[in-house]
Input
Amino acid sequence: MDESFSSKIRRLRPPKPLRRAGESMGWTSEQEPDGQGGLVSSRTYFLVGSECRFTCSMCDLWKYTLGESHTPLGSIAVQIETLHEQVSKEIPGSKHPEWIKLYNASNFFDPANVSPDEYDSIAKLCKGFRRVVVENHASMMASKKTQDSVLRFRDLIEVPLEVAMGLETMDPNAMKWLNKSMSLEQFQKAVEFLNGEEIFVRSFVLLQPLGTRLDESVEWALKSCRQAAAWGSQRVSLIPTRSGNGFVEDVASQIGWEPPTASQLENAFDTLLGRSLENQQVDNRSCIYTVDLWDWKTLAGTCEVCSQWRHDRLERMNQLQRVLESHPPRACTC
Ligand code: SF4
Output
């Protein structure tokens, strides 16, 4: 890792909000394509623990982490338990959805972020779900210690495990700015290891990361998504790059970077789903492609009339895995 680069990224961050151990950032639920033409309901728990050991330049997840270097033992399980109770209160009579995502804004298999001594209790709290999804940096998968942790947790949960990892981009110009501390080969090997152990892989790809030429960003997003699929990811999620962590804004003005627009996200997704349906060999259609809509409202290039309509179209495309016609409301001023 380039220490001075990391230091600069950290120096430019706005002040870190105070988080308390054992207090989560809440939960959300959604319907995801199940890969067989249907939908599966999934619930995401946003857990708070210690900060990730890496310092990716576009990352804003550090805002949801503790000041301590190690997550206090037991605090992850406490959050899951509390969130289970919270969901039961907010939606009385609700049953567990099929999948649960335990997103801890860092690396699930880094012992500093989630103690292996908590795996047993976490696994017990996942009983009743049919898949457990966690996040981890791909480069850590090369270590035997991490591999052992992954396999131990997989065996404890007794249902399929899915590991989500950021590929981010294959654009060499953007990789220079990412500070991802990971090579493409490491990512590929991590996918191979997980697939070899019958663990599902979800990959994250960025639309228009810092350093990617604006007129090439859709092309690089498509290339990266397709490569993640070709390497063995069962799911690839395309995420519009966000600003707001200080470093992105600092560099943006120097290199002429702009945040991706709604139209770019739509173009990328239309092409990704459209072409892949025509050419299954090239695109490996066993892979599910989705776009991340959590920050849709912050994307430029929509108006009050069309924004919700366009959001809903992409959401339906996420679920149906096919391109839908695009006829925004007539009064749209975009
Ligand atoms: S590995 Fe993930 S959590 Fe860690 S800095 Fe990079 S993007 Fe953020």
About this structure: The first helix runs from residue 3 to 11. Confidence is low (pLDDT under 50) at residues 276-284. Residues 52, 54-56, 59, 61, 106, 137, 166 surround iron/sulfur cluster (CB under 6 Å). Residues 109 and 146 are 6 Å apart (CA to CA).
